[in-house]
Design a protein that fits this description.
Elements: H1 3-6, E1 15-19, H2 23-35, E2 40-44, H3 47-56, E3 61-65, E4 67-68, E5 71-72, H4 74-83, E6 86-91, E7 107-109, H5 114-126
Parallel strand pairs: 1-2, 1-3, 3-6, 6-7
Antiparallel strand pairs: 4-5
Helix pairs in contact: 3-4
Length: about 130
């Protein structure tokens, strides 16, 4: 996919936190986010690491895998929402496998491609985080 296909580098100068426990997916996301213009992509593979990343520096936007090796990512979503940081969820189980509180938010079904992620990120940037 080229920049023209994804609608430009709309993440220009934004920092992104990727919370994902599968290293290969995390690095795939980093490649996508960099192609979309993100200037800083940080990774966290566990709930504790994600909370530490947030406490150290709040991102501009976040991509949250719902299931982190058996832990749900919802405490991270709550913290981001309280801070007004936009985010989206990724999951292999679909929206129906999510906590009802968060299922109305932006959810990207795995596997995904650059175009799908670009659309979801644009939607997240255009809307406030879920309650």
């Amino acid at each position: 996919m080229t920049d023209a296909d994804s609608g430009s580098r709309f993440l220009d100068r934004l920092s992104v936190l990727v919370v994902e426990d599968e290293a290969i997916i995390s690095f795939l996301l980093e490649d996508m986010l960099t192609e979309l213009g993100a200037s800083d992509v940080r990774h966290a593979g566990t709930l504790a690491a994600a909370m530490a990343q947030i406490e150290a520096r709040m991102p501009d936007i976040a991509v949250l895998d719902v299931n982190l090796g058996g832990e749900r990512v919802y405490p991270v979503a709550e913290r981001l929402a309280a801070a007004g940081v936009r985010f989206l969820f990724t999951t292999g189980y679909g929206r129906s496998g999510m906590d009802p509180r968060w299922s109305a938010g932006i959810v990207v079904q795995k596997p995904f491609n650059l175009a799908t992620m670009a659309t979801a990120l644009k939607d997240a940037l255009a809307n406030l985080p879920s309650p």
